[in-house]
Every structure is written in structure tokens, then in C-alpha cells.
Write a structure and sequence with these properties.
With 308 residues, the protein is an alpha/beta fold. The chain contains twelve helices and nine strands. The protein has a six-stranded parallel beta sheet with strand order 3-2-1-7-8-9, sandwiched between helices. The longest helix has 18 residues. Bound molecules: zinc ion. It comes from Nannospalax galili.
């Protein structure tokens, strides 16, 4: 469209993205729903009076956002892409330029993803008083879009931008307008979006991309998310630990629990002897700690559960 060419590591994936649409493409295969398992989860939820739910990338794959780790369909399995490292981003203006160029292209698609029935179910549970607290490892704002309020975004949110110098937070949508003003002739089309809104671009495209700095102090801008190699804010961790202490049960939805920032709360729940249920397609780090494990699509199973 603009004379730009895109480099992709797996061209056939991009072709199939446009042929089949995005929804469903990133969801791993799962066995049909087992009525007995549905009854067991229903019993787990009915017995729970202070339910803590922790969600991961698996809840958003049904909204068309790929995860990193799923067998065959996750980004690690499909491409040679790996997530950005925090120290590289902070140290190098070139790394930031590359990151923001890709993020700029991916933003219209990434920000347009909508909650799926699993997000809506959890939001509904909250409205009915069933959900004590919701902790998500996702940065896609889909729980917020579904109306969840008793929510901690453990790894931040791509819809906010943070100044690394003065700490000012601004909406990501505003930054998109600044990108457009600074790069009037720079247009491109997203060819494949990662969980963090990233896309694939050539070096030439990246090098001509102009990155704005903080409007208040001129400092470098970073999405308000925890990159790999960074740590979650300790106040946030304490806050979630307090919610775990108050809870009487824990349900994990769509997470393999490979990342310690989330896994530590499973360990805390286990220490407190809370019953733990896990809904995730594929094995998780905590299957042996769970009293109930379900290998189902979140968006198919959760809406079947009566939260009363
Ligand atoms: Zn600033």
C-alpha cells in the first residue's frame, strides 16, 4: 500500500491470519467439554464465598491475541520472536525506536480487540458479588473493557504510557496522534500482532521512524507495562498478597503459571491451604497443587457456570 515491505519469519502464518480472521487462530486445540468437569467447577464456584481469580494470556487468545507459550499456536512455537527485555529498552534509544515503530503499526489492531465471553463472565461474577478480586497478567485491557473493576493488572496495561524520567502517565491513544504528526509519510499495515502489540518491520522502516518524548519533561516514553527482566511494583505485589489472604479459593484462568510474578500467588494460596482450580488448555506449573484441572476454552466454559 505504501511501498513498504514486511519481513516475516513464517509467511504462511500471515496468510492464514488474513484468510481465517484472527479469532480462534491462537487458541490451542482442546477436548470437548466434559459435563462431569463442568459440574465439578460449578461446585467449586458455588462453595466459594471469596473467590480470587487470576487470568493469563489464555483468556485473551479467544479474542484474537496470541500468547507466547502455547504449543503450536503460541508465538514461541510459530516464530523466532522473543519479547523485549526491560534493560535493553531503558538503555538504548535504538531499541526504543524499533519498539515504538512496531508498536505504532500494531496499535490500531491491538487496541481494537474486544472481550470474549470469558471476560464478560468474570465481569458478571463481580457484579453479582461472586468475585472477591481479579488479578490479570495480561496487558490488553480486555477485563477493563468488559467492565471489571475489582481488578489488579499485575504487569500494567498497554493502554497507558509512562515517562521513564518524570513518571507521568498518559493514555496510549494520545501518543498515537503524536506519532502520526511526527511521521506524516510513514504508513504501514500490521502483519502479525504479538501479545504486547508488537509487529514485524524492516530496519529501513524502523530507522526513519520519529519517536516523541515526554511532553512535560522530554524524557523517554515506555508503555506502562512490566517488560521481561523487570519486576512488578512491590506495593502491587503486597496488595495482591492481601487479597489472597482474604480469599477462600483461587481459580486460575488461561495461564500456564510459568512466570514467577503470578506463580508466587499460587504458592501463597497453597500455603494458606486454599482450594485451587485451574482452567487452562495444556499443562501448567501448578497442576499438582490444583484440586481441579480443566483443559477447556475459557470462553466456552465460564459462561456455563452459574455464579449464584
Ligand atoms: Zn516526563
Amino acid at each position: 500500500m505504501s511501498g513498504l515491505t514486511f519481513r516475516s519469519t513464517k509467511g504462511h502464518w500471515i496468510t492464514s491470519l488474513s484468510r481465517h480472521g484472527s479469532t480462534g487462530l491462537f487458541v490451542p486445540l482442546s477436548p470437548p467439554l466434559d459435563p462431569e468437569k463442568i459440574r465439578e467447577l460449578q461446585c467449586f464456584i458455588t462453595l466459594s464465598k471469596k473467590l480470587l481469580v487470576m487470568t493469563g494470556a489464555g483468556i485473551s487468545t479467544e479474542s484474537g491475541i496470541p500468547d507466547y507459550r502455547s504449543e503450536r499456536v503460541g508465538l514461541y512455537a510459530r516464530t523466532d520472536r522473543r519479547p523485549i527485555q526491560h534493560c535493553d529498552f531503558v538503555r538504548s534509544a535504538q531499541v526504543r525506536q524499533r519498539y515504538w515503530a512496531r508498536n505504532f503499526v500494531g496499535w490500531p489492531q491491538f487496541s481494537s480487540h474486544q472481550p470474549n465471553p470469558a471476560h464478560w463472565a468474570l465481569s458478571n461474577w463481580e457484579k453479582l458479588g461472586k468475585l472477591h478480586w481479579l488479578v490479570t497478567q495480561n496487558v490488553d485491557a480486555l477485563h477493563t473493557k468488559a467492565g471489571s473493576q475489582r481488578l489488579t493488572e499485575l504487569h500494567g496495561c498497554m493502554h497507558r504510557v509512562l515517562c521513564l524520567n518524570c513518571g507521568e502517565q498518559t493514555p496510549r491513544g494520545m501518543l498515537q496522534k503524536r506519532f502520526q504528526v511526527l511521521n506524516p509519510s510513514w504508513s504501514a499495515e500490521a502483519q502479525g500482532v504479538a501479545p504486547d502489540g508488537d509487529v514485524f518491520l524492516t530496519e529501513e522502516q524502523v530507522q526513519s521512524f520519529q519517536v516523541p518524548s515526554c511532553a512535560r519533561c522530554g524524557g523517554p516514553l515506555k508503555p506502562d507495562v512490566v517488560f521481561f527482566g523487570d519486576t512488578v511494583n512491590p506495593d502491587k505485589v503486597d496488595f495482591v498478597h492481601r487479597r489472597v489472604k482474604e480469599a477462600d479459593s483461587l481459580l486460575v484462568v488461561g495461564s500456564s503459571l510459568q512466570v514467577y510474578s503470578g506463580y508466587r500467588f499460587i504458592l501463597a494460596a497453597q500455603e494458606k491451604k486454599l482450594p485451587i482450580a485451574i482452567l487452562n488448555i495444556g499443562p501448567t506449573r501448578s497442576d499438582d497443587l490444583a484440586c481441579l484441572k480443566l483443559n477447556s476454552r475459557c470462553g466456552e466454559l465460564l459462561p456455563l457456570i452459574d455464579p449464584h
